[in-house]
Write a structure and sequence with these properties.
Layout (H helix, E strand, L loop, with lengths): L13 E5 L9 E9 L11 E4 L4 E9 L1
Length: 65
């Protein structure tokens, strides 16, 4: 599932994100969502989240609910 809808993502969800510096390469980072940073219901490039590791990026894949 893609990460463009905020209601599909919850703290504790396992996701793959793309960090700002990796947007051109498309390199994904896997982790657990700590906070959801995007306030709007949807975002075409992915909902911005902060992982438990402190990394911030946009969700490209949701691995589990």
């Amino acid at each position: 599932m893609t990460g463009t809808k905020r209601d599909h993502i919850k703290p504790g969800s396992k996701v793959r994100i793309v960090e700002k510096q990796n947007q051109r390469s498309g390199e994904l980072t896997e982790g657990i969502v700590a906070n959801i940073l995007t306030n709007s219901a949807t975002h075409p490039h992915g909902i911005k989240v902060k992982l438990e590791s402190g990394i911030v990026g946009r969700v490209k894949e949701i691995l589990n609910g």
